[in-house]
Amino acid sequence: MNTSWNNFVHEQAMIWEQTVLAWITNNHDHPVLVVKYEDVKKNTESELRRILDFLQVPYSSSRLKEVVVRGYHMYRRKHSESFDHYTPGQRDTVMSAIHRVSKHLKDNGLLELVNVLLYLHDI
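Above: the chain sequence. Below: its structure as tokens.
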């Protein structure tokens, strides 16, 4: 096992968790919009509309449709569908961080608990 990759995954999961929790905890004066990756992936156009409306950014329907049609696929790395970057232990680390953040969001009325397994399927 690559120790450096394992350490990196663990460290980044903890940094992500701490950053999100600190932001949620210290951001009571501003409105919050929770955006889930899997929702953007499934319903790109409606989620982009929701984000732009929340941010009060003007947009045209034609420009938005153009963005959705072009998508982000051209920018993604190509790899086989069976390639998995994570060991079971690394997945557990990431799942635990996501679960703790999701619980905090739910406890604060910001989000129903994220379906962690569905989310991790796309990592």
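The mean pLDDT is 80.
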